[in-house]
Amino acid sequence: MLAKSKDGRVHVATLGLGDDGHFASLFPDLPEERKETALDANRLIVHTTTTQFAVFDRISTTYKVICDTHDKVFFLKGANKFKVWNEMIASKPDLNRWPAQKAVESGGTTIIVCPF
After folding, report:
1. What distances in angstroms separate CA 7 from CA 12, 15, 25, 50, 103, one per listed residue?
2. Do the beta carbons of residue 45 and residue 62 sit within 8 Å?
3. CA–CA separation, 29 and 25 (whole Å)
4. Angle at 30 between CA 116 and CA 64, to 5 degrees
5. pTM of the model
6. How far is CA 46 from CA 40, 49, 85, 87, in A?
7. Residue 1 pLDDT more than 90?
8. pLDDT tens by residue, 28-37
């Protein structure tokens, strides 16, 4: 969910984190051309695919949109998601393995954990 502020930036983005470390349909080990698109500051959306879930074709916003968002709220459901989050935070920067690190590093990040 996205809501824009008066300055044109997204005010709030609600996000999740997958057990594999993906977020916003940006998956670990994105093919190079998809990663370049996701990182392109002149683009707003990116098409991604996955074989891990029933929905194969995905569309997402680019890192620019997500990182420029004033407030990023990650909702983590269950102990395993919180474990994945902590593993990501403790890891050295690695966009291939942890796509959400870039969003976290851009600031304005809050996490809400539901333990069950």
Report:
1. 13, 21, 26, 34, 20
2. yes
3. 12
4. 85
5. 0.88
6. 9, 10, 24, 26
7. no
8. 988 888 899 9
